[in-house]
User: Fold Phage holin family protein from Segetibacter aerophilus.
Amino acid sequence: MNWILQLLINAAILLLASKLMTTVKIRSFGTAVLVALVIGILNATIGALLRFPLNLFTFFLLSFFVRLIVLAIVIKIADKFFSGFEVASFTTAIILACIMSVAGSLVSYFLIGNTY
Assistant:
């Protein structure tokens, strides 16, 4: 049940970010839910494969930044899958990854009760 709530929260964060940022476009909340689902799946598969060698290369000292860069890459990959989701540049994807990471962590901590 927590993952459904987290998925809906991520979709809402994506939709809100698209309203605040002119370089991110999402057609509807349904598209945002599908994009959040695909980002989650890609982050769990491709993201894990990308994070390990990058963390190894940085001796695990820059783990937070590696996660942000990989999430931005995953966002750009998800951008290619949907016609109703558009991220203008990689810099925009990094900003969106920061927003999703911070907002998702705060919401998880306060609403869902997951403590990290």
In short: Helices lie at 2-20, 29-57, 63-81, 90-112. The longest helix spans residues 29-57. Residues 72 and 93 are 5 Å apart (CA to CA).
